[in-house]
Amino acid sequence: DVSFVIVPTPSDEKGAFSLQYAKWAFQEIGRALSQKDGYHLVVMTSTVLPGSTRYGLLPVLERESGKTGGRDFGLCYSPEFIALGSVIRDFLNPDFNLVGEHDERAGSRLEACYAEIMENRPPCRRMSLENAELAKVALNTFVTTKIAYANMLAELCSRLPGGDVDIVSDALGLDTRIGRKYLTGGLGYGGPCFPRDNIALGYFARALGCEAALAETTDRLNRSSAGKLAQRLGTLIGPPATVAVLGLAYKPYSHVVEESQGIFLARELAASGFRVVAYDPLAKESARHELADKAVILENLRRCLQQADAVVIATPDPEFRGLQAGDFPRKDPGVLVFDSWRILRDSLGSAPHVRYVGLGMGIDDAAGKARLKELWDDGDK
Fold first, then answer.
1. Within a 10 A sphere around the Cβ of 241, how many other Cβ atoms?
2. Is the dihedral of CA 155, 158, 160, 162 positive or negative?
3. Are 199 and 16 in contact (CB under 8 A)?
4. What region, left, alpha or beta, does residue 204 occupy, with left being phi > 0 and alpha being psi -120 to 50 degrees?
5. CA-to-CA distance for 98 and 76, rounded, in angstroms?
6. Which of 18, 86, 139, 154 could pair covalently with 360 via S-S, beta carbons 3.0-4.6 A apart?
7. Secondary structure of the chain in the HEC alphabet?
8. Is residue 344 within 8 Å of residue 314, measured between CB atoms?
9. Catalytic annotation on 193?
10. Which residues contact 85 (CB under 8 A, 6 or more apart)?
11. Is the Cβ–Cβ distance between 237 and 223 less than 8 Å?
12. Which of 285, 262, 282, 266 is nearest to 274 (CA)?
């Protein structure tokens, strides 16, 4: 009764989403429709730019099937709002269902289908194909903007005496206009979706004669995260020290290393002259392919820590959350632990043989106080 098309829509050379795989799938479905009697609904779920479904994919279905959309078959654009690592839970319990419909019959059929599947009875928003396509990209880019803003706050707090991005974010999150989700300052975002969406929105805006400067700036800031951290590590411990990068997937519970901040950081550190060792619970093989001779990927966490002069927590993986002071080697002047997510502040903050630095946590030092005093001290005028 219903066919869902879930295929990659990778970025093309212009920065748009390629329809190469989607067109192939629609071609095969169209050929099957030519042999089927009765009404059938086709649903595109992959992220695409506005106009793609109506002008890029519908003609393929009509050509291959010899039938007419809206009369002989239905067509909808309905993206999923899921995250790798929690796909089934997210699919069955979405905040809402987004249905872009070619015609009312198609939208009603899909809404009824979702009503039988979703466990939490979410609201359904039905609209044109183009509005739904824009809504999906807009939602993703809004989330990345919020992440980039939180990361900016973390950088400010790192330079503020006694600064603490978690305290600031907790306060901001109490405002219902803002909320706490995606407001945890840390390393930048990655993965197969978020990084390309801002680029695609920028391309689409230019194609329409508009600007998407905020989306383009968000992308630029995110791509600078690993370089900034590598520079900061260079001020704390210089090469040729051995740095252990913990977390090579773009997020916990995943083996995906596409656009991973941990991978970017390992490359930056290697280019700066550091020896890099690394570990990830799930992404070891894919990380070896990405890093080649830039880093040594070790099979267990203990061996990785033993070799390290400095350790960077690149993802808040549960295996890293359980680390204790005794897990780190005793070296002079102490192993440096740079915690990008502050998951070990309670267990390592006072360990005598660990130099603990949390991203987004300022040191209450004389230099920081002097910077603030210089800003506001007018000499008692």
1. 17
2. positive
3. no
4. alpha
5. 10
6. 154
7. CEEEECCCCCECCCCCECCHHHHHHHHHHHHHHCCCCCCEEEEECCCCCCCHHHHHHHHHHHHHHCCCECCCEEEEECCCCCCCCCHHHHHHCCCCEEEEECCHHHHHHHHHHHHHHCCCCCCEEEEEHHHHHHHHHHHHHHHHHHHHHHHHHHHHHHCCCCCEHHHHHHHHHCCCCCCCCCCCCCCCCCCCCHHHHHHHHHHHHHHCCCCCHHHHHHHHHHHCHHHHHHHHHHHHCCCCCEEEEECCCCCCCCCCCCCCHHHHHHHHHHHCCCEEEEECCCCHHHHHHHHHHHCEECCCHHHHHHCCCEEEECCCCHHHHCCCHHHCCCCCCCEEEEECCCCCHHHHCCCCCEEEEECCECCCCHHHHHHHHHHHCCCCC
8. no
9. yes
10. 251, 252, 253, 254
11. no
12. 266
Q: Which of 76, 124, 157, 193 is catalytic?
A: 193
User: How many residues does the structure list for the chain?
Assistant: 381
**CA 251 to CA 141: how far, in whole Å?**
18
Are the CB atoms for 263 and 238 separated by under 8 Å? Answer: no
Q: What is the pLDDT along the chain (381 residues), one digit of tens a residue?
A: 999 999 999 999 999 999 999 999 999 999 999 999 999 999 999 999 999 999 999 999 999 999 999 999 999 999 999 888 889 999 999 999 999 999 999 999 999 999 999 999 999 999 999 999 999 999 999 999 999 999 999 999 999 999 999 999 999 999 999 999 999 999 999 999 899 999 999 999 999 999 999 999 999 999 999 999 999 999 999 899 999 999 999 999 999 999 999 999 999 999 999 999 999 999 999 999 999 999 999 999 999 999 999 999 999 999 999 999 999 999 888 899 999 999 999 999 889 999 999 999 998 778 888 888 888 887 665
Opening angle at CA 255, ends 250 and 258, nearest 5: 45
